[in-house]
Design goal:
Helix content: 25-40%
Largest sheet: 7 strands, antiparallel
Low-confidence stretches: none
Order of helices and strands: HHEHEEEEEEH
Number of strands: 7
Distance between the termini: 46 Å
Shape: elongated
């Protein structure tokens, strides 16, 4: 099953949700909402150090569980040893703010979440951008998968025809 739609860019540019989310909007950290503010701040920073966070676009209510890694993790890596790269989670660019970048597939479209969060208020600004580079990779994977599926169907149909012919010959010989 393909993970992306055939024309990702068009969907990104015409879909109402993507149109809204592609504009810079207010966002907030929505993890541990039932905990005291100081604990939420600490957990937000800990989550970011582990490369994850739950952030919501306030105007649309779009809640995202983001991962700030550029690709999969090595099988032998331990969770406590893994840190997201600085181009994904940057605590150093501005005081009291963290700049974040996450890539993922949303509604069949490769996107990049780009924004910043205030470490005191746990609010910030962010937007979704179309991820052209990842879209090309996913399009190629989709084409390959479709080609393989078509080949399997062709082989199946060919085997079915042979089986049916063999059955007919067997029936004719037994008569």
């Amino acid at each position: 099953m393909p993970r992306v739609v055939p024309d990702q860019r068009t969907k990104f540019e015409t879909d109402e949700l993507f149109k809204k989310l592609s504009q810079e909007m207010d966002v907030k950290y929505t993890g541990y909402k039932d905990r005291p503010v100081e604990e939420r701040k600490r957990r937000f920073a800990e989550d970011l150090q582990q490369g994850i966070s739950t952030i919501t676009f306030i105007a649309t209510g779009t809640n995202l569980n983001l991962q700030f890694f550029s690709n999969g993790l090595a099988e032998d890596s331990k969770p406590e040893d893994v840190r997201p790269p600085p181009d994904r989670v940057d605590f150093d660019r501005e005081p009291n703010r963290v700049h974040l970048t996450a890539t993922f597939i949303m509604n069949g479209v490769c996107v990049r979440w780009v924004g910043w969060m205030d470490l005191e208020t746990l609010n910030g600004k962010a937007q979704l951008l179309f991820d052209e580079e990842q879209a090309k990779i996913e399009d190629e994977l989709m084409r390959r998968m479709l080609k393989e599926t078509q080949e399997r169907v062709r082989l199946f149909e060919e085997n079915q025809r042979r089986w049916q012919q063999d059955q007919m010959q067997t029936q004719q010989q037994s008569v």
